[in-house]
Write a structure and sequence with these properties.
Shape: globular
Amino acid sequence: MAEGDSARAGGFVDSGVHVDVKDYYGKRLQKTADLKSNACVAPAQPIPGFIRQALKKVHPEVAARYYGCGLVVPECLEGCRILDLGSGSGRDCYMLSQLVGEKGHVTGIDMTEGQLKVARTYVDYHMQEFGYKKPNVSFVQGYIEALTEAGLEKNSFDIIISNCVVNLSPDKKQVLAEAYSVLKDGGELYFSDVYSSGRLTEEIKNHKVLWGECLGGALWWKDLLQLAEEVGFSPPRLVTASVITVDNKELEDALGSFKFVSATYRLFKVPKGNTKPCQVIYNGNITGVEDSFQFDCQYTFKVGEVVEVDGEVASILTKSRFAEDFTFQPPGGPSGPCGVKPKADIVDPFELALRQEKPGPGSATGGCCSTQSATCCK
């Protein structure tokens, strides 16, 4: 099950991996308790109030067929067009439907007929529950490696989310390339996934249960950095991470010395160029993070505080949906209370996971494995 082995002749065709995954998630798994490892199980942790209320309105059958880990909820969603890769039973889509509002829209794409049937069954139920005059959620059957072929338009989404799904694809680069294609300029891929401490052996990749449990298809985290650059994304910004414990002797033996971490990254579709470092001041207008906005593990913005950011972050903040939420000024401008400048070095998610074992201040809408939201894979 090597990367890129899926067939494409006159349209996208199932690879053996896709057939196995559809069987695993469409037939073998009927509820969360059927999972055989902790890779995609989220222990109970505090969830921000407004998200907790949104989740309460999701139909019980939709929630029961949910197999993702934690929550993947980026900030600043009102009015946005969001795409959920591997949307499954639709839990996240229906939760996000409430956060984008009636003027926004959420599209879910999944290749598993059984999961899509559950999601589509409850569209009218949820729109009535939310008080919307017309649906702002739709579900598409297709592959995350072939988004445009599934009918999704290029340059049409503000945000793409994915929750423990990219690892299930045999062609991660194609997934990233398709995501880049359908994102608008300034758009963001905000996703949580499982990463390994090194490149996995073919024996592990060919283990069907390990693949279905989100372990056998995990990328070495350094390969994500390379693939993102090749596709055109800005360098991935690591938001948060948690160590995965498998807690299954048979699977642990098959995995040998490899370690795994669940990590949330932000990738932006912004122009490459000569953006210089600048000073920014967070205005505090983003729902759920009015006082403090954790952009990633290196930058947390507090209202009214002057923070000097590197050129990459400056480019992202000025060219994305966050532009109106910040005041920008050149380096060396009037300074306010400013803490130690964060380093712009690449962060090892395994090292970050060890540092994040104790809850700390962070984004109220952090993604999977956030210390402030439902934390997975500990």
